[in-house]
C-alpha cells in the first residue's frame, strides 16, 4: 500500500513539472525574483533579482538589491532537458547557488519552484518580475 502511494505521488509530481519549452517561455527575457532557502518567505528585502536575458546571458544581483541595481555577477543560463540551469562566476560559490540545474514546477498562482538537482539546496522559489 505504501509503495502504491509513493508511486502515485511521484507520478503526480512529474505531471506538474514544466516542459523545456514552458521553462524557456517563462524565463527568457524576464527578471526573476528568487527566494533562496533559509531566508524569510515574504520579505522582499530578502529577494534577489536576476535577469535571464534572451541571448542566454544572466545578470545576478545580491539579496536585497532592486532590479535597477547593477549586476553583481554575470553568467549564462539554458534549459537542459526539462531543467532550468545557470552558472555564475562569483555569486554563491560557497553555498552552491552559482551552478544550479533542476526541474521547475508551479508552486502557487504567483510562485514557481526550482528543485535543485544535486540535493544541496532543495527548493528555490521564484516569481516573475519585481
What does this structure look like?
By secondary structure, this protein is an alpha+beta fold. Helices cover 18% and strands 36% of the residues. It has a single domain (18-128), classed as Lipocalin (Beta Barrel). It has helices spanning 2-16, 20-27, and strands at residues 30-35, 48-52, 57-60, 73-80, 83-88, 99-106, 112-115, 123-128. Strands 1-2-3-4-5-6-7-8 form an eight-stranded antiparallel barrel. Strand 6 (99-106) and strand 7 form a beta hairpin. The longest helix has 15 residues, at 2-16. The termini are far apart. 23% of the residues are buried.
Structural topology:
Elements: H1 2-16, H2 20-27, E1 30-35, E2 48-52, E3 57-60, E4 73-80, E5 83-88, E6 99-106, E7 112-115, E8 123-128
Q: Could you give a short description of this structure?
A:
This protein is α+β, with helices and mostly antiparallel strands and 130 residues long. It has helices at 2-16, 20-27, and strands at 30-35, 48-52, 57-60, 73-80, 83-88, 99-106, 112-115, 123-128.
Amino acid at each position: 500500500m505504501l509503495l502504491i502511494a509513493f508511486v502515485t505521488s511521484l507520478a503526480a509530481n512529474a505531471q506538474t513539472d514544466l516542459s523545456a519549452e514552458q521553462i524557456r517561455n517563462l524565463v527568457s527575457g524576464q527578471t526573476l525574483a528568487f527566494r533562496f532557502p533559509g531566508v524569510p518567505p515574504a520579505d522582499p528585502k530578502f529577494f534577489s533579482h536576476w535577469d535571464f536575458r534572451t541571448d542566454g546571458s544572466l545578470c545576478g544581483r545580491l539579496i536585497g538589491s532592486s532590479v535597477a541595481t547593477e549586476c553583481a555577477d554575470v553568467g549564462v543560463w539554458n534549459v537542459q532537458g526539462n531543467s532550468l540551469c545557470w552558472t555564475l562566476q562569483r555569486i554563491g560559490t560557497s553555498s552552491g547557488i552559482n551552478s544550479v540545474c533542476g526541474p521547475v514546477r508551479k508552486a502557487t498562482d504567483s510562485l514557481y519552484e526550482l528543485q535543485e538537482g544535486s540535493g544541496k539546496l532543495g527548493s528555490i522559489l521564484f516569481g516573475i518580475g519585481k
